[in-house]
Amino acid sequence: MTLFQDIAIIDLLRQREAEFVVVWSCEQKIKELLGDVDFPFPMPVDLPSQQRRTIRKTAPPKKPQQPSTLPEIAGQAIPVDPSILSSLRKLDASRENAYRLVFLRHGVKDSSFQTDYDLITALAGLHCPEFQLLSLETVSFTDLDNWQVVDTLWEDSP
Predict the structure, then answer these.
(1) Sign of CA dihedral 60, 61, 62, 66
(2) Taking residues 66-76, what's their average pLDDT?
């Protein structure tokens, strides 16, 4: 939901509650006029919130195998580098347990270990002066001092 929708819903819920208070006040005044005698008030109307809904179970939409764009950032889809996407794949759990990214961050070479395929896909399409992906590898990772490259998926050509 957007912030505008959130505010509108909160305002409508406040109005709804205020109307319930009006109904309650009217019923209390009628009881007072009758000297606390129970009055046969008609049942309230059937509100949409009181109606039962049947929820249909449908299959979730299928995700594309390899997206052609990143999620929207500031309302704009950012294109993904097809050379990286064509070599990108999920980890082979029998021999790999992480991705190793080598990149330039603000001109300084650095690396990071990640396990999230969706994050790797997003980083593959990130084009900005502060970040440049240099290579993407799969590794057998035990700890920061004990890891071994299994496969080089992509390497930036000089």
Answers:
(1) negative
(2) 46
* Beta strand pairing call for 108-114 and 131-143: unpaired
Query: What value, to the nearest 5°, has the Cα angle with vertex 103 and ends 74 and 129?
Result: 45
Q: Which helix (H) or strand (E) holds 140?
A: strand 131-143
Q: Which residues pair with 102 in a beta bridge?
A: 111, 135
**Which two structure tokens, joined as six digits, stand for 127?**
């084009």
Ramachandran assignment for 28, one of left (phi > 0), alpha (psi -120 to 50 degrees), beta (any other): alpha
pLDDT given at position 78: 46
Is-contact 149 137, C-beta < 8 A?
Answer: yes
**Cα(7)–Cα(51) distance, integer angstroms:** 25
pLDDT of amino acid 138 = 94
3-state secondary structure at position 123: helix
Q: Does the predicted model carry a pTM greater than 0.90?
A: no
Residue 81, classified by CB atoms within 10 Å of its CB into exposed (0-12), middle (13-18) or buried (19+), is middle
Beta carbons of 119 and 67 less than 8 angstroms apart: no
Distance CA 134, CA 157 (A): 8
What is the distance in angstroms between the CA of the first residue and the CA of the last residue of the chain? 44
